[in-house]
Structures are given as C-alpha cells and as structure tokens.
Inverse folding.
C-alpha cells in the first residue's frame, strides 16, 4: 500500500471505530491521523468524516476555522469517505434544515428518515463494487438520500433505495461500514488512495 495518510475528522462521533476499521483493512497505524486542527487537515491525503451529529460537526468546523479549508480540499479532489452524519455534512441539500453544511456532494438528504420508532436496524446492502459485494448495513438514526444529482452514482442499495454514492473522489454512505467485523469498504477506500 502507499505512504498516503488518511485523516479521521475527530471532533465528535465514532471516528475511533473508523480508525480501527482502517487498521483491520491493513492500513498501517502511522498512516492514520486524527484531525482536529488545520495543520492536521493539511497533513492528510484523504479524510473520513464519521457518523455522529452533523450539526455539531458543522459548528466545530467553523469554530476551529477549518470549514473553508476542508471545502476547498474536497472541491480540489481529496478522497473522502463520509458516513451517516458525515454524509449529511457534505450534502448539497438537507431537507427542512438550515444547518451548516459543506454542500460538496450533489444529493438531497432527509435526516433521521426512518423515524424514531426505528432508531437503528441492520439490513443487507447490495453494492455494485465487486471487491465489496453484499454486506450488512448498520443504520443508526440514518438519513435517506432522496435525490441524486447527475454527477452522482449509486454504489449500493438497501430495500431498493440508494444508501451509498460516489461523485469523483467522494464516497458517502448512510450506514456504518466501520462497525462490521471485516472492513471491506475501508479496504476498498484505502486501495483507491
Ligand atoms: N441523525 C444524525 C445527524 O443528523 C446522524 C446519525 C448518525 O450519524 N448515526 O447528524
């Protein structure tokens, strides 16, 4: 594998689980960097934006003056893996919300779209990626992708609905691939950097 460094946006949320998933995927520990400040962001070649609370992550990006720098890096083609709240944070449109967002991925999302009764569930996710195949999707207060822009490709579905997308170097999923025993999504992501 390469020398590239993979950052974990580490303000909040389950970034540690993503770090462990990268390690299970064979990424050497010295290539995994927790990112909480601008200099750390500048030192990485790719970034994972974890699940957690999208409103809080947006607010902290602004408070630590990283919002514009991150947006610029993503627009310049930095590989991104965004999951759940991370997907919300990078979406162009969030239904009924004026929260801070990076707006770099042309999708429309609906937050907490499965309702309060179904706080979390597991269901098979069929990907179109041969190296990944069908995996278990862990959905936790998950958003739904309700519209995809023309440049956005559906990479995976669950019960017929798109749950993972790609636009150039941005990969985003509504579920939590970091919680699987194996780490096929992280292995695939790392292999592309
Ligand atoms: N509902 C959360 C949000 O809107 C996302 C949930 C999660 O990341 N598990 O940020």
């Amino acid at each position: 594998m390469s020398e590239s460094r993979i950052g974990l946006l580490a303000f909040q949320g389950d970034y540690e689980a993503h770090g462990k998933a990268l390690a299970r995927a064979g990424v050497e520990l010295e290539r995994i960097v927790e990112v909480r400040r601008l200099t750390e962001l500048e030192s990485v070649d790719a970034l994972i934006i974890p699940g957690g609370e999208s409103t809080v992550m947006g607010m902290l990006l602004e408070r630590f003056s990283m919002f514009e720098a991150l947006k610029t890096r993503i627009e310049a083609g930095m590989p991104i893996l965004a999951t759940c709240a991370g997907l919300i944070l990078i979406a162009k449109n969030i239904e009924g919300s004026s929260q801070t967002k990076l707006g770099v991925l042309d999708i429309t999302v609906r937050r907490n779209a499965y309702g309060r009764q179904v706080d979390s569930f597991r269901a098979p996710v069929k990907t179109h990626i041969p190296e990944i195949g069908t995996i278990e999707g862990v959905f936790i207060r998950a958003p739904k992708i309700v519209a995809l822009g023309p440049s956005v490709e559906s990479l995976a579905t669950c019960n017929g609905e798109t749950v993972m997308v790609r636009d150039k170097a941005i990969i985003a999923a509504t579920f939590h691939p970091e919680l699987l025993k194996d780490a096929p999504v992280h292995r695939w992501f790392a292999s592309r950097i």
In short: The domain at 6-191 is CATH 3.40.50.880 (Rossmann fold). Residues 15-24 form the longest helix (10 residues). The chain has six helices and twelve strands. The chain has a mean pLDDT of 96.
